[in-house]
Amino acid sequence: MPKPKRAVIFANGELSHPEAVLRLVKPGDLLIAADGGARLCHQLGLIPAILIGDFDSLDEDEVTSFAESGAQVIRHPERKDFTDLELALRYAQSLSVREVVVFAALGARWDQTLANLLLPAAAGLVGMRIRLVDGPQEVMLLRRGEALSIQGQTGDTVSLIPIGGDASEVTTHGLEYPLLSETLYFGATRGLSNVLLDNRATIHLKEGLLLIVLIHAERRTTEGS
Fold it and tell me: Which of 81, 156, 168, 173 is least buried, going by the fewest C-beta atoms within 10 A?
């Protein structure tokens, strides 16, 4: 069986714009449900290939039903060191998947939302390009020495947020407020609310970590962003 090029993970948070989610899922994607994310798959008419977690959000009948539908069930103990979403990401990495799209990672609990937003920076997940998608919003991570090309439409909002310390020698191309080997300081807001000048922009980072938040303009939410 060929290794999947991309994994799509459904977490157990809130799912925005479900019709857009279906347009973003591609044939050949490895579908992974992190515990209660399996219910979101079911609502969309999707069968996860992998169901992983401690299953505190699903009852046994639901787990059995997904298994009978063809899902491989990977059960972890309730007392564990990783959230179900991190387990799903680590499983994808064990398959040498390099691109991951995560849906439903945000929700009402701030602790879990913040932890999920920071997961792409985990040392154990180096080497994967992780994209968290919530309706018209996307969150990506840029590591030291990397460049990231983002695609959107003129007028889309792009925010650069340093995490874990200052982000040094940041250079951008294609944004309204350009940066040329400049520093974005941890805890400051200078990198927020930049704007795409065309349909593509590039961000280069020499030192640090940057969360890149791309917010598609309202006109695109009906197109699936």
Answer: 81
